[in-house]
Specification:
The chain has a single domain, classed as Aminopeptidase (3-Layer(aba) Sandwich). The protein contains five helices and eight strands, in the order ββαααβββαβαββ. Strands 1-2-3-4-5-6-8-7 form an eight-stranded mixed beta sheet, sandwiched between helices. A hairpin with a 4-residue loop joins strand 3 and strand 4. The chain starts with 5 loop residues before the first strand and ends in a 5-residue tail after the last strand. Helix 1 crosses helix 3. The radius of gyration is 15 Å and the shape is globular. It is of the alpha+beta class.
Amino acid sequence: MEEYTLETERLYMRPAHIKDAPFVLELLNTPKWISYIGDRNVRTEEDAVQYITSKMLPQFEEKQFGNYMVIRKEDHKLIGCCGLYDREGIEGVDIGFAFLPSYEGKGYAFESASKVIQYGKEVHGIATVSGITVKENTASQRLLEKLGLRFIKMITLSNDTEAVMLYRNTTEHA
């Protein structure tokens, strides 16, 4: 039986494994990921393994939190990812989420993000949670607001040319 780090009513969440490479390849090449998050040049399963080992796993090793794979309980299907990221240029941690198109609009992102934020506060003492999104991604803006984050300002992260909208929780409880 697989070990899960977090659980909600409908979902399990756990750190990524190398075996998730086919899913990561599919997710990172969805049209919304490429338009709203950016093309990560992951074109093969080998690229996906490299992405998991270089981008997803190191933060878990260092901070004990990061990107969680989101699995639907009813059929144990990988449907997306959600996590807290220690991103340069952002105060506190950044909440991020992405789901395969067929699982969008069903409340999975809110359910998983709420749990990840709660876990961050309760287990790691994370009081400040930020979120970033591009102006065109109104669904992410609505979700960030539903999670209790509010728009602060436009920022440009290092190594990026496009400004993104910065959101942050305004009622910080330790």
